[in-house]
Amino acid sequence: MSGWLLLFGGFPLLLLLFTSFLKQHPEKFFELSLSVESYAQLINPDYLLVFLRSTLLAGITTFVCLIVGYPFAWLTCRMPSRYRLLILIMIMIPFWTNSLIRTYAVRIIIGAKGIVNKLLLASGIIESPIRLMYTDTAVLLGLVYLMLPFMILPLYANIEKLDYRLVEASRDLGAGPYNTFRSVILPLTMPGIVAGCIMVFVPTMGLFYVASLLGGAKKLLIGNLIQHQFLVSHNWPLGSAMSTTLIGILVVMLLLYRVVLHQSDTAADRL
Amino acid sequence: MKKANQLYIAIVFIYLYVPIAVLIINAFNANRYGLQWDGFTLGWFQAMLNNHSLIEAARNSLLVAVSSATIATMIGALGAVAMYFHRFKGRKVVFGTIISLMMLPDIILAIALLVLFIILGLSLGFWSLLLAHITFCLPFTFVTVFARMQGFDPYLIEAARDLGASEGMVLRTIVFPLISPALIASWLLGFTLSLDDVIVSSFVAGPGFDVLPLRIFSMVKVGVKPEVNALAFLMILISIIFVATSYFLLKEKAHEN
Amino acid sequence: MKIRTISLIVLLINLALVSSGSAAEKVYIYNWTEYIPDAVIQQFTEETGIKVIYATYESNEAMYAKLKLIKGDGYDLVFPSTYFVSKMIKEDMLYPLDHSLLPNAAMLDKSLLNKAFDPDNIYSIPYMWGSTGIAVNTDFIPLARVSSWQDLWNKEFSGQLLLQDDMREVFHMALKIKGFSSNTRDPNEIEAAYELLKELMPHVLVFNSDSPRLPYLAGEVNVGMIWNGEAWMAQQENQAIAYVYPTEGANYWVDSFVIPKGAKNIKHAHTFINFMLRPDIAKLCVEENGYATPVTAALPLLSEEVRTSEVIFPPAEVIAAGEFQTDVGEALVIYQKYWEKLRSGN
After folding, report:
1. Which of A121, A157, A208, C17 is deepest in the core (most CB within 10 A)?
2. pLDDT of C272-311, one tens digit each?
3. Whole-angstrom Cα distance, residue A185 to residue C255?
């Protein structure tokens, strides 16, 4: 596996790093001379705003996915084992339809002439259609919809092996449900939570077409910006610099998290 | 309490399936924009069957998705297990590379892989697409299995070794059965990622090998055609049938054992 | 285990099917999906026996980036829009056309040939052309209120406005209002346009990147930019949606046939182009897309409704008021800078 990774994984990363140090050229994608001018260009309040906005959106999405996904994964594990696999696969089936079509379906549901509005109007709760499309709520709905399995699956994989006797023991010792959760369940399922959060947060930072389709692309996200650099501005060095910085920040966040939790994550460390 | 649990699961399912229901209904809706019900029609299915390129793209997508999910799961699982049990030089680097790969915006991976393929002289087509898909599925499969590995009782391995089991046997009889939920989760994740990928595919796919997401996304500027809904419905139907059959096959096997 | 072996066999069978290509004549086309009607492609294969392999892209930018990277290898025919043609010519990415193989080109509308982006049409032949103008849902906004780009700045449209997520098209509006050319390279003019656009930003509801007619049909927006073909298709569904050619001038663009440098089946590509320039074929394309064809001989074949529609075929003086888009060279960087400012500051 290391071989594969090195070739297919390492190469893009190295290329990225290298390109971010090149100069921009209007006709080709980049010029073969080194400079740090791309990084200098990054120091721009507009870009900072875009970055913060993306982080906020990704963060909220992750949080919502966690809140919704954790109980779901937990309850699925409590189900008799013959149902578990079934439920998992039933979760996945909607995701085997193209995300674009599903996003269009979401539009139909929340649009001005959509199902939600039609129902509300017909039942007399509102007088004129409420605007759901092209709002932040719409974007959040769409993103959570898209990313939910990425939270549920790793959570499930982790919660499934939880020894329920530990929970029962804790109860027998007199701990209430809150304490049981905090001291027993939470620490044991933390790896799953972390895995799930990473798998939702990270891709969401790069997603932008859902935001465009449901949110109207009024607020630019990092994904838009980077895509723009590569395809429209043909400024590959700047796009690379942005990406490298993004990856760097995310990696730093991860490391900080690990340090804070004093996680020792391998059997090799423990034995 | 039991009822509340089931209700919660049901609600989440509703949230996930309502858009699908809309999709399915519109596959039969005479109105091509799906904003109102104009009447029942099978016309879109007709159009879909006539649209050979769409069907071929769908078939190609399934092929690539199944292959890359399977291979990515195998490699990712092996890697996660290896990472967990062994110290080897450069472990941190490998770990870092994987996480960074996940964070890489699609467009960069797409272009970088394309450049790599050009340098290697690999002509674009099925294989280039497959390799690319495996590459971006890998971090996800790895992380899923790895998360499962945490809290793995290493003494089980020791015990097995003491009893004389070889490494291979240990893997086969102890490790893999215990992580099998993670393997399934990884496969499902990989399959989903591959089936829906647009940007990487658009750059590394060859001219003769079209995949479904590319086809559909390319319709975006001119308006996605309703026969796509019909196709989506068909794909869901096939997935359900496939799942149901394997489920019953597995159950029978379990009964036999 | 059994399932694995079964799926492996299925995989292998499929692989075998995939890699067995026939030795038939082929031509590889790279285009937007459904931009050429399916029926046309099938007719071509029936008449010539050449198989058409159709690959798709969703934006000019993605197409350009990919072609540049693979040096056009594998694609015989591509359909870039105006300024991409000139860009690709300048960067030596195209193969000059052999006009002796294109007899049908003689019947083309002269006003669409010999444009600034490809003088003498050495590299390209126009396929379809169209305009970007204003759409108004007359059920909600009276037609009289919207006749120019400037009208979009009207405060009463705040929060109902749709703009295309396309830098050049948005700048076109502002530049035209200011009386400049929309292909200007003058930094001062571009800056003036930027200042004007800055005022508009808070009032925009959506920057659209997919089919523009959808938000109008869904009732989400009632006024804004749209392509004429999209407006035409919207009208088929909802008569109230009108297309307005703004007084300052609409943005005109042309999508052309070009042959990239790495093409393998150059002769077949020419055969295809010539086939598409036939009046009966051009007629089918117009009816499908709602965009105009440069094949003048096709006009009498169209239905009265289509032929007389000003949405598809604007009168000459309207075209003259507008401007055809072309490459701006290095000034693109200036546009980028302001576009990013406009879009990230929201």
Report:
1. A157
2. 999 999 999 998 988 888 888 888 888 888 888 888 888 8
3. 61
Contacts of B127 (CB under 8 A, 6+ apart): none
Q: Which residues of B touch C (CB under 8 A)?
A: 32-33, 35, 50-51, 53, 59-60, 63, 66-67, 70, 111, 114-115, 118, 124, 126, 198, 202-203, 205-210, 214-225, 246, 249-250, 253
Name the helix (H) or strand (E) containing C205: strand C204-208
Whole-prediction pTM: 0.80
Q: Give the Cα separation of A156 and A75 in Å (integer).
A: 10
Domain housing A74: 42-262
Q: pLDDT tens digits, residue range A26-64?
A: 344 555 555 566 667 777 777 888 888 888 998 999 999
> What are the structural domains of chain C?
22-129+253-314 (3.40.190.10), 130-252+321-344 (3.40.190.10)
Work out how many domains chain A is built from and give that number.
1
C246: nearest Cα among C155, C319, C312 = C319
- Residue A30 inside a domain? The answer is no
> Is B190 part of the contact surface with chain A (CB cutoff 8 Å)?
no
Chains A and C: how many Cβ contacts under 8 Å? Answer: 79
- Tell me which chains share at least 3 CB pairs under 8 Å with chain C: A, B
CA distance B214 to chain C (A): 7
* Nearest-by-CA chain B residue for A110: B19
Encode pLDDT of B75-113 as tens digits.
887 777 777 766 666 666 667 767 777 777 777 777 777
For chain B, which domains are there?
A: 63-223 (1.10.3720.10)
ipTM over 0.85: no
What's A257's domain CATH number?
Answer: 1.10.3720.10
